[in-house]
Design a protein that fits this description.
CATH superfamily of the largest domain: RimP-like superfamily, N-terminal
Order of helices and strands: HEEHEHEEEEE
Distance between the termini: 43 Å
Strand order of the largest sheet: 7-6-5-4-8
Strand content: 35-45%
Largest sheet: 5 strands, antiparallel
Number of helices: 3
CATH architecture of the largest domain: 2-Layer Sandwich
Number of domains: 2
Number of strands: 8
Shape: elongated
CATH class of the largest domain: Alpha Beta
Structural class: alpha+beta
Radius of gyration: 18 Å
């Protein structure tokens, strides 16, 4: 099964379990690192602050379901984690969930006079990342084409 199919099937399996626990799915990644396979779930609670116990509870709930579904036919490691303070945002769910948080946007080429911008994430609109930045002339909204954005990463709030 292809990476995208595994991620989508795992997400579909995870969402009702997470809802029952009062949690949200932010990301699922099927990855290979150093010859090992990992199925990673990134979860949080509305408003943030998922605990280690909640991660463990979800892990215990989804592990037998993944086995029953026989979604993956090779050995792998199951990981469940919170997003972390410096999470790189990968999908629309995360852009929506972290709206209002401070992020650093790195671009492939200079946009709006720089390759890196720090500001408050306003989300996605169409194909653009919306970022509210503070400049010499006050606050303004940047529209950065997602195709030209290399990385959007959470910054620790100060």
């Amino acid at each position: 099964m292809a990476r995208k199919e595994i991620e989508e099937s795992a997400a579909a399996l995870a969402e009702p379990l997470l809802q029952g626990l009062g949690l949200l799915l932010l990301d699922v990644a099927w990855q290979k690192e150093n010859g090992r396979r990992f199925l990673r779930f990134v979860i949080d609670r509305p408003g943030g602050g998922v605990s280690m116990e909640e991660c463990e509870r979800f892990s215990r709930a989804i592990d037998p379901r993944l086995d029953e579904l026989e979604l993956i036919d090779e050995p792998y490691y199951l990981e469940v984690a919170s997003p972390g303070l410096d999470r790189v945002l990968r999908n629309e769910r995360e852009f929506d969930f972290f709206r209002g948080r401070t992020v650093q946007v790195r671009c492939f080429e200079p946009l709006e006079g720089a390759r890196s911008h720090v500001g408050r994430l306003e989300g996605l609109e169409g194909e653009d990342v919306l970022l509210r930045v503070q400049g010499e002339e006050g606050e303004r909204l940047l529209r950065l084409p997602r195709a030209k954005v290399a990385r959007v990463q959470l910054k620790e709030e100060s």
